[in-house]
Structures are given as structure tokens and as C-alpha cells.
Amino acid sequence: MIGEVPNVEAGQGFSTRRLAHEAGVHRPLQAGICGTKKIGAESIVVSGGYKDDEDYGNVIVYTGHGGQDGAGNQVSNQSLEDSGNAALVTSYLEGLPVRVLRGYQGDTPYAPATGYRYDGLYRVTGYGSKLGIDGFLIWQFRLEAYDDTPTPQTTQQPELPGAPAEPESTSVPGNEAPERITSTVQRIVRSSAVKRQVKAWHDNRCQVCNVRIEVPGGSYSEGAHIRALGSPHNGPDTTGNVLCLCPNCHVMLDAGAIVIEDDLTVIRGGQPAGTLRTHPQHAIDLECVRHHRERWRQ
Amino acid sequence: MIGEVPNVEAGQGFSTRRLAHEAGVHRPLQAGICGTKKIGAESIVVSGGYKDDEDYGNVIVYTGHGGQDGAGNQVSNQSLEDSGNAALVTSYLEGLPVRVLRGYQGDTPYAPATGYRYDGLYRVTGYGSKLGIDGFLIWQFRLEAYDDTPTPQTTQQPELPGAPAEPESTSVPGNEAPERITSTVQRIVRSSAVKRQVKAWHDNRCQVCNVRIEVPGGSYSEGAHIRALGSPHNGPDTTGNVLCLCPNCHVMLDAGAIVIEDDLTVIRGGQPAGTLRTHPQHAIDLECVRHHRERWRQ
Questions:
Q1: Is A215 in the B-facing interface, judged by CB distances under 8 Å?
Q2: What sections of the protein cross the membrane (chains A, B) (predicted)?
Q3: Burial letters A61-79, b for 16+ CB under 10 A, else e
Q4: Do residues B57 and B111 make contact, with C-beta atoms less than 8 angstroms apart?
Q5: Do A231 and B186 lie within an 8 Å CB cutoff?
Q6: Are the beta carbons of B137 and A61 separated by less than 8 Å?
Q7: Helical H runs in chain B?
Q8: Which of A136, B58, B99, B280 fits A74 for a cystine, CB–CB 3.0-4.6 Å?
Q9: What is the mean predicted confidence (pLDDT) over B79-108?
Q10: Domains of chain B (ranges plus CATH)?
């Protein structure tokens, strides 16, 4: 349910939400966010429902769900407890792709002239709250198109001379301009199904140092391959070769500052530093542990 | 000196190393690695000098420098103290691009038929040691072409039926295959000049928790924007808006688990948690601190 839907390509139009629902692009008929805190956001609809939204084509600033009256005015605060908002936080923390559907109601050059258009996969690269135009707390999510997501079509509407460009960040002479290529947040990369399984077993608690990083709306950890994928290591992408680690221990594992003995003793900086925490369903592949250890003999 | 060289495009040939030197693509006339521990590796030459090398075109397993006799046999251990090897470790830890020049001597289908060919920018996505074919310790670096680096040309030599593909990682039924698109290591992204300045002032020590991550051959930290770049935050890319953080504190800053008061008190999980460490040359931009704090009111 996360990611591309079979037989639907970016740019494809749907005259109604029901047709988008039937194609599996966006399953709810009313809600703008499809997803749950547990699995993340499958898809969102960008259709002008929130006046604080911003749409720059490949970048969308999307206002979360909640707090509106029937006329579309914000009348109370939004919350990350809201299921749709919590889903978008999970998409951020897990680096998951979100399908974007744009509707004709949006007053942006990227809105389709009629109906709805599937515009491909975006990722959530940041979130935060602010006081919205109506004076209530809103949560906003920055979504960026993947490099291989096509640029959405622009409808040249008379009242809009052209597609807006995302405002430049303030630039100070002598300093390097922000590199567009690296986008705004790059730390978080997509967790594979194997990594998500390991992280779920350990509930995002680091198997080496026991840290669990708590953030508004969730917690964060990383799946780390013990024996690296690809040449020259060619490790398997299996749960036995993946650890649930905090980012700091992940860096240290990847660069050999942490190695693991066959009895699961953790060696950090050459010194024993406790025992790798395990889980009944998580059997560590000792061949991978050995291969990693061999790689860091000096 | 790091990155692309003016007026030279990927695929361009040089009949001699002196011409590549004069073009600025690879400055040394003999050494295979150009760079230092301080600035990272500018460029490498892949020319069959080490029998443990592997070349898959977009992926290169490159053996470090040292320990050879005049005949190209490994006769002693390699070390990360070697300046060229240390430079490649810095390129890994800083996420810096490395120019790749392939020479005719390489016995791979990607070697040019004659002379040398500049093949564009690669990044170091991992490193480690092993016992090489000759029985001595060698250090190896995995380099991957950037997505926009052209695929190198293949020379169809009679004795080589075709370009080798990188071996698939072991796959287990029911598990997701490794995603090629995400490559093997994605945690480390390029540090901009602004970020590198801040990290240098703090010598890679986290300004929040004082952790300094030590790994074989160097240390690691991340430059973190306080007020995020891009919409809706539009923070400046200046040293006053960047902190030197460990990866864990970076995740927490980006997701609002850490905010900073005007007097530089750190609030972590809603509780005071010490004071942000500063440096005489590093003036924190309090407008950015306030903007970040406002973003995480709940």
C-alpha cells in the first residue's frame, strides 16, 4: 500500500475521487490523508483545503488535518494525535514515500484544470507547527518529489502568471548557497521491510546503547546492516544481518568503531562495552558478525 | 579542488597523466590518490595497480595505497596512517565527491583502450580492511557513481566477454531484495563549506551532548541547520544557523525533541538539559533559534 500502485503512472488523471479510490491511488473518499501512525501515510490529496498550504511543484508545504469548521476556517488547534498527521510523522521518521494526488480545487498553477491528477511519489523532509493564518496552531509537512518523480504539469490560469518558484533561502555573500541537489533534509532514508521488522522487534531502542530517540509524534531508530550490502562484502538483506541502532551507533558500526564478538559482546573503541541486546524473534547471523569483525582488523 | 574541474567533462580522454595533471583532473604524476586527511581525496586513478581491486563501472572497490614492492606485489600491511588512505576516509566521513580517472592498464572492461579517461564524480560509501590476495592487510574503499555521473564506457576486449555486473547480495525468499536505488550507505551526505567550518571549530564534538564519535581514521559529526532551509522555514545557510551535532542530537533537533532558548539553554524532551557549547568564532543566530523554537510549540 506504500509506494507506487500497479498500472498507474505519474501524470494520470481521474475525473472523480471515486475513480482514484478504485485505482488504489487514494483510498478515502473524503479524507485528505490516507494512512495510520503504524504504517505511515500512503497518500495525500492537495486540493486547496487549507489556506496555509504552499505548492511549488516539486516541493509542497502541506497543512495537517483537523481544527476546521464546515466553511474551511481554522477554529481550533491541530494535533499530532490526529491519525493522518501521525501517519505523516511516521512517513518522515521511516523515510517512506507518499503518493500525491492534486485536485482541481487548489488555487495553484499545479492544480489540474478538472478532476484529480496523480503526481507520483514524494517524501516528507520535515515537519513542525506554527500559528496559521486564522490564529490557531497548525502542523505543516514539507514534501519533496523524488529525483525520478516527473515535474507536475502547470495549468496556466489567467489570474496566475506562472508557476511560483520556491523562495530562495537567505544568502549571505561569501557563503555557499544551499545546494538544491541535496534538498533540505537527507539524514533519513527509506527503511526496507527487513529493517522495519527489526526496528519493530526492538521498538526503536538501540541494541548497543539502549537509547531510544523520542521526538514529537514518534520515536526513531535505524536499521543497520552488520555485513554491508554490495561489493566487496555482499552481505544478505535478512533480519539476521540487521541491527536496530541509534544513528550514533550506526555510524560507529559502519566505520568499524563498534565490532561484535561471537558471544555478542560489543567492542567499542577496542574495549568491551556490554552485550548486544537481543529479542526472542531476532536471531543474529554470526557469519555476518564475523565478516564485519574481520573487516575491521588493523 | 574537490568536485568537478572547470572545462572537463566526464568521458574526456587524456593521452598521458601529464595532460590529466595539467587539466587539474588528477594532479600527482605518480600517486594513485590525490588528497590529504584534512581536505579529503580530490581524485584517484583506477589503473590496475592493485590485484584486489574490483570494477563494476558505477561501483569500484578500490584498494588503498602502500605495502607494495616495485613489482606490484603486496609485501607489507597497509595503514590508514598513509596520507592517501586517510584522505579517502575523510571523503567518506564528510560525504565528499572524488574524481575518478581510469587508466589503460586496468584489466577491466571499463579501462580505456589507451591513455586515461576522466569518468566523473564518485562518493566513498564504505571502507574496511581485509587480508589481500598476497596475504597482507589491505584497506579497501567502495566508491559509487553519483546518480548523474554517466555510466563509463566499456571496452569490449576479446578476453573479456562483457562488463561484469556487481554480484547480487544473497537474497532470501520472502525478504525484500536490497534496493539498488538507495545504494549501500546513505547516512552520510556532503557537508557544505558552511557546515565544514562549523564542524572544524568544534572539532566534531557535539555542541549539545559533547559526544565526539571516533572511528578508525577520523572522527564524525554533522552540520545541522537550526532554522531549516527551504519552505516554509527559509533559513539562511550561514554558520550562525548551523550547529555541530552528533547524529542523535541532529535527529532530535530536526524533529523538535531539542529546542534552544535565547540564553542557549538546551531543552530536551521538555526539560532543561544543559547549555549549548559555543566557540569564540561561532556566533549563534538567535533569530534562527527563535524561529526553530516557534516551530515546535505544541
A1: yes
A2: none
A3: bbbbbbbbeeeeebeeebb
A4: no
A5: no
A6: no
A7: 17-23, 83-94, 193-201, 247-254, 286-295
A8: A136
A9: 94
A10: 13-145 (2.30.280.10), 193-295 (no CATH)
